[in-house]
What does this fold into?
Amino acid sequence: MSNVSRSAAAAGWLRLRCILWALVPLVLFAAVGGFLYQGLYLKPRELPSALLGRPAPAFDLPPLPGKQQFRHADLKGEVSLVNIFASWCAACRVEHPLLMRLAEDKVLPVYGFNYKDDSEAALGWLKRFGDPYGRIAVDRTGRTGIDWGVYGVPESFLVDREGRIVCKHIGPVMERDLAEKLRPAIAAARAGQPVKC
Amino acid sequence: MRWLAILLQLLVLVGPAAAFEVDRPLADPAQEARAKSLQKELRCLVCQNQSIDDSNAPLARDLRLLLRERIAAGDSDAAALDYMVQRYGDWVLLKPPFKAGTYALWLGPPMLVLGAALGVRLWLRRRSGAEPIDTPLSADERRRLQALLAGRDDR
It folds into this structure.
């Protein structure tokens, strides 16, 4: 190989190395940008439940006067939805028609925890907007709520036949949540398949 | 000037924000002190970047009282924290635990610093290697240099 072609090859290699080094900032920028972009769609307010796959925590709470009492034993035998609600909770009214539909269409039993509420107010609320709950337990102090890992109202838990929590929804259940998250989860829980949630 | 004086007087009235007081402190001062220090380690689930120690959310208050209940019932510090973790997950701890899921979190930054230090060292060594080495010219080289300086190449 002549000296000339050898030095040309060396120059080519040098240029390639320059280009590669120039790409480093671009690649770094793309990586950081990618992470930031992903961050736009994260929901840091929605915490994963620590109870997924675990038996629903036990509780022993009184019923709302004139309504059926919701007991821990009710959670076994059938896939059910447990909804935390309160008459003072504005977002609860948003999801309320959806819960009514679930109950009317007999999609699954819906149980309610009346959370830190005044029983009179709760009864008035149910009378005015309708009562989707087959059974209700009154959690006046919010202690059962803590046992269930509740940190806001409304929250909804899907419980499988064996009484295990298999899915948790934080905030009001919207049409889209029902279609994309809850209905598939209900179907999976009924089929005894692992629930994606 | 008068407004300034009034403003300054108003500023005096603004004290430092006091830590949120618990309405039912524990009777045993040692237990209360433990509860006080533990509640600084627990996250308020509602306000998220505050501890339950300095949040006035109703849930934070419930958790402060519950924490005291656990301590009064004889829970160790670890057991009381675990009680919360059972319900709200590791996220309730302001300081994440060191376990398989968090290795990247805890070990990542030191690894990055270590990697960067190694990189800088390699780079420095390579750069110093490229500098001229001052070994004296051989007799042959010296002769050639002389020849070049004299304007003829006798190779």
Q: What stands out?
A: The domain at 17-100 of chain B is CATH 1.10.8.640 (Helicase, Ruva Protein; domain 3). The helical segments of chain B are 2-13, 29-38, 58-72, 77-88, 103-130, 139-149. The two ends of chain B are 94 Å apart (CA to CA).
